[in-house]
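Reopening this ticket.

The earlier resolution said the output was attached, but the attachment link was broken on my side. Pasting everything inline this time so it's all in one place.
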Amino acid sequence: MKIIYIHQYFRTPSEGGAVRSYHLAKGLVDAGFDVEIITGGSQRGYDQCWIDGIRVHYLPVAYDQNFGFFRRTLAFLFFIKKAKKLIRKLPRPNLLYITSTPLTTGLLGLWAKKRLAIPYIFEVRDLWPQAPIEVGVIKNPLLKRFLISLERKIYQQALKLVALSPGIAEHLRKVCPDRQVAVIPNFSDLDRFFPMEKKPDLLQKYGLKRSFTIAYTGALGKVNAVEELLEVAETAQQTNKNWQFLIMGEGSHKALLQRISSQKSLSNVHFLPFGSKEKVNEVLSLADFAWISFAHLPVLKTNSPNKFFDALAAGKAIIVNHKGWVYDLVKTHQLGVSCSPSSMNGCIENLERIEKHPEELFIMGKNSRRLAEQYFNKELAVARLINLIEPTKGSQNASGEKDILTA
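Inline output:
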């Protein structure tokens, strides 16, 4: 079976960032599927290469989180235009597997179904346009109505839908009750992420002390609320705690966060350059807790953040700042503590207690790794996807699995 996998921001583990599509595509190839990926890149012209059995087509469409709204929109539209031309030239696939964001990738599905009679499965990573509407990026009433209508049409015309969390699945079923919706969350790479001791050479490499440490590894954008981690750091410094805070990532708010840290003279905060998954695992190995945060908007409660699953695989205790699916997992499986702005003092007290009782920290880390191994390994995610594409072929791989996806 031939599949064209469309992901405008495809990344490999060596590049770092969100590598879900790489693992799913590689899993399909290993299962005997013929997979080609269409993505964007900053190179001057079209390029293509083979990556672990996957033929990857790079279209010359640059994209960066720091782009403004207009420039982002142009990047989305240019990608659609160039992808249409390429799809016409490639051998006809049996199926398109299209992942968002952006929602505009769904236009390729609508076009391919109507003009080429090629069905598509649409994967929803974030609720769009709900997210930019709630954040305030999209304000025009006409544009809002148009995008909501487009969202509905893309979902309705899809052969099947994939949601990355139970909350997203619930939304999809409300919009399209007649479409099959599968929940395939982000997953833990148990090979690249694993529990490690705090090695003296790594502490020296990053200029750190062997002390109580909280780390954030991920995007530094408006919706990530990493400024709340700086509030914890400020409180820790004011109360003379020997704690340190690591922020590893890139994004539109990185300069702002660095400015806030500098203005408050937070000597306990260290900004580290983002890197490969191996580098992220190194940084997590130096942390006692992994910080998982989002802005306090209803739509963001449905997120399935990569950094959370990386931290699970690394055997880290979790601090989560928002209610939602991730919070429920942390609470149910005793992975860590919550730290919302309204409960900041309670969070600090919990961390003080845990620092004095490291056996609690050890148990939380063990719970995290166990959850990753049992429910969020990439092999199980691939099996779910194969079962969605070809139920007969995938049923054996997915049979007998215990599932905690309550949607």
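Reporter confirms the inline version is readable. The radius of gyration is 21 Å. Residues 200-374 form a domain with the Rossmann fold fold (CATH 3.40.50.2000).
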